């Protein structure tokens, strides 16, 4: 059971949590059972953190609050989930990219590795009400490059601005 707003963010949250889990799995050294537990804990933490900061009618509202960030500092949500499986922040920094930004917004989950890397979309669904979701032409090439493990060519999208 949950509130209406909470239900709507499950896909976005599970997409984001699965992505971080995939990065950990790719780095190696973390067991499948630990990964499963990490993913569940991360989803739980995100759900708790976002529940009053999810605005499907204004998807960009609260975007900065929901942004997951590793930048010489471990994101507290990732840190918390990792703690439940006994991974220290030091270990996380070895396993995960040192610069990772993950935006978890209604209808769209995207990420960037590196401060000037391309922004890649992990999940996108059309917004209700007939607004056309923006198309990113390099979406597939970006994912391919992630799979191959090369850094993608620098393309700057200003698709998200967080106003302070």
Record keyword descriptors for this entry.
164 residues, alpha+beta, Actin, Chain A, domain 4, 7 helices, 4 strands, 44% helix, globular, disordered N terminus
Write the layout of secondary structure elements.
Blueprint: H1 4-8, H2 10-27, H3 32-50, H4 63-66, E1 68-71, H5 76-84, H6 89-95, E2 99-105, E3 108-113, E4 119-124, H7 139-148
Antiparallel strand pairs: 1-2, 2-3, 3-4
Helix pairs in contact: 2-3, 3-5
Protein name: BTG1 protein
InterPro entries: Anti_prolifrtn (IPR002087), BTG (IPR033332), BTG-like_sf (IPR036054)
Domain Anti-proliferative protein: 96-115
Question: Can you walk through the features of this model?
Answer:
The chain has 164 residues and is an alpha+beta fold. The protein has one domain (9-125): Actin, Chain A, domain 4, CATH 3.90.640.90. Helices cover 44% and strands 14% of the residues. The chain has a four-stranded antiparallel beta sheet with strand order 1-2-3-4. A hairpin with a 5-residue loop joins strand 3 (108-113) and strand 4 (119-124).
Summarize the structure.
The chain has 164 residues and is α+β, with helices and mostly antiparallel strands.
Structural class: alpha+beta
Q: From the alpha-carbon coordinates, what is the Rg to the nearest angstrom?
A: 16 Å
User: Proportion of β residues?
Assistant: 5-15%
Shape: globular
Overall number of strands: 4
Gap from first CA to last CA: 35 Å
Give, in spatial order, the strands making up the sheet with the most strands.
Answer: 1-2-3-4
Q: What is the CATH homology-level superfamily?
A: Anti-proliferative protein, N-terminal domain
Mean pLDDT: 81
Just name the CATH architecture: Alpha-Beta Complex
Helical residue percent band: 40-55%
Overall structural domain count? 1
Q: How many individual helices?
A: 7
Largest sheet entry? 4 strands, antiparallel
Kindly report the oligomeric state of this protein: single chain
The ordered H/E elements are HHHHEHHEEEH
Mind telling me the CATH class? Answer: Alpha Beta
